[in-house]
């Protein structure tokens, strides 16, 4: 079967509410919103090369404006409310902005393959250059694994970053974490060349981190949806 363009919506229990705040060691994550606009714009624009190198994908390709990012943040708010995806702004315990992390439906960020069909969430993240130098890239990866295990209903996460701590750099592989019987088993995921990912976004605008696709927004409750890559 050709899975090109298919997106597997997040499978969430009825009545389940996503956490709006998460903590791990000195890391604090808050559901991203318009209130984070200025921190987010500054963080993105200071981190373009590092995001491309560590998170991978087609975003960002250039500095973002406050106007453009405002729209992006509104979409993240809507997606969070509808349970389509969960994006968090990340700070340290002193209030210093560190970056962002994303829980996306499978197929939205990374094209689906046979190996990825059993995964139920695509996890990615980035941090600013200063945060990277202070070890927060690896620490946020550990935080995400902890949160997926303790705060979310997912059982098999796919960590889709290009650089995966502990797997070398660049890995171009991602990382699958399987939660079974209260324990974690981890192994490398399937290769996904960055060049195969989309370079354009919604309504012809520069590609955004939220990868907004026409035709998919109204189908967030369905298990599968389609969108163009």
Characterization of this structure:
The structure is a single chain. The protein has 229 residues and is of the alpha+beta class. The protein has one domain: Aminopeptidase. The protein is built from 5 helices and 10 strands. The protein has an 8-stranded mixed β-sheet with strand order 2-3-4-5-6-7-8-9, sandwiched between helices. Strands 1-10 form a two-stranded antiparallel sheet. A hairpin with a 2-residue loop joins β2 and β3 (27-31). The protein starts with 5 loop residues before the first strand and ends with a strand.
Mean pLDDT over the residues = 81
- Assign the CATH architecture: 3-Layer(aba) Sandwich
Give the overall shape.
Answer: globular
- First-to-last CA distance: 17 Å
The order of strands across the largest sheet is 2-3-4-5-6-7-8-9
Please sum up the structure shown.
Helix content is about 25%, strand content about 25%.
Topology:
Blueprint: E1 6-8, E2 21-24, E3 27-31, H1 37-45, H2 48-54, H3 66-82, E4 86-92, E5 97-104, E6 121-127, H4 129-133, H5 136-151, E7 156-159, E8 175-180, E9 183-188, E10 224-226
Parallel strand pairs: 6-7
Antiparallel strand pairs: 1-10, 2-3, 3-4, 4-5, 5-6, 7-8, 8-9
Helix pairs in contact: 1-3
Defining traits:
229 residues, alpha+beta, Aminopeptidase, two-stranded antiparallel sheet, 5 helices, 10 strands, disordered C terminus
């Amino acid at each position: 079967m050709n899975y090109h363009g298919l997106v597997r919506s997040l499978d969430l229990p009825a009545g389940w509410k996503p956490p709006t705040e998460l903590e791990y060691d000195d890391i604090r994550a808050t559901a991203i919103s318009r209130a984070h606009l200025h921190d987010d714009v500054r963080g993105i624009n200071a981190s373009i090369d590092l995001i491309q190198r560590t998170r991978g994908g087609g975003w960002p390709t250039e500095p973002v404006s406050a106007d453009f990012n405002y729209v992006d943040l509104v979409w993240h708010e809507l997606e969070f409310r509808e349970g389509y995806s969960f994006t968090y702004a990340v700070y340290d315990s002193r209030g210093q902005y560190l970056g962002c992390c994303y829980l996306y439906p499978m197929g939205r960020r990374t094209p689906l393959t046979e190996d990825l069909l059993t995964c139920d969430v695509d996890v990615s993240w980035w941090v600013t250059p200063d945060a990277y130098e202070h070890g927060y890239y690896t620490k946020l990866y550990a935080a995400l694994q902890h949160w997926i295990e303790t705060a979310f209903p997912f059982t098999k996460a796919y960590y889709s970053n290009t650089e995966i701590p502990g797997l070398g750099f660049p890995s171009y592989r991602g990382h699958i974490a399987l939660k079974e019987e209260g324990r974690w088993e981890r192994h490398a995921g399937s290769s996904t060349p960055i060049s195969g990912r989309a370079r354009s976004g919604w309504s012809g605008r520069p590609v955004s981190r939220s990868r907004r696709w026409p035709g998919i927004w109204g189908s967030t409750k369905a298990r599968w949806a389609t969108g163009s890559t």
